[in-house]
Design a protein that fits this description.
By secondary structure, the chain is mainly alpha-helical. The chain is built from four helices and no strands.
């Protein structure tokens, strides 16, 4: 019984020392990680649209949200909507606000799409 308690105590002490060492190593690496991220080319992140939402959605903004052209036909809009919603649905950890904007974009484009 006593040997088990000693083994548990040594294990906890070893885990604490390892955690402290890992934490200190991460602190030393932080400036290097920041420098590495800043040295990445800006094009590495250009695949994502940067910008907020305007109060009234435009056709261009709706097309950017769904990843289609502003003149997309009615067949491409539901496909794009489904693809984006699978990634951003609130039931799967997505934002309800973003999901609402995706639905708004779909409704706007479907109302103006060519048949």
């Amino acid at each position: 019984m006593a040997s088990t308690m000693i083994a548990i105590g040594l294990t906890i002490a070893a885990a604490g020392c390892a955690g402290r060492y890992a934490f200190q190593a991460m602190k030393k690496m932080e400036p290097q990680v920041k420098q590495a991220l800043q040295s990445l080319p800006k094009s590495a992140f250009s695949g994502y649209y940067r910008g907020g939402f305007e109060p009234k959605m435009t056709k261009r903004k709706a097309a950017l949200i769904l990843g289609v052209t502003p003149t997309a036909n009615k067949g491409k809009i539901p496909e794009a909507h489904k693809r984006i919603m699978l990634l951003n649905h609130p039931d799967k950890g997505g934002s309800p606000y973003i999901a609402a904007k995706i639905n708004e974009a779909k409704d706007l484009l479907e109302g103006q799409a060519k048949k």
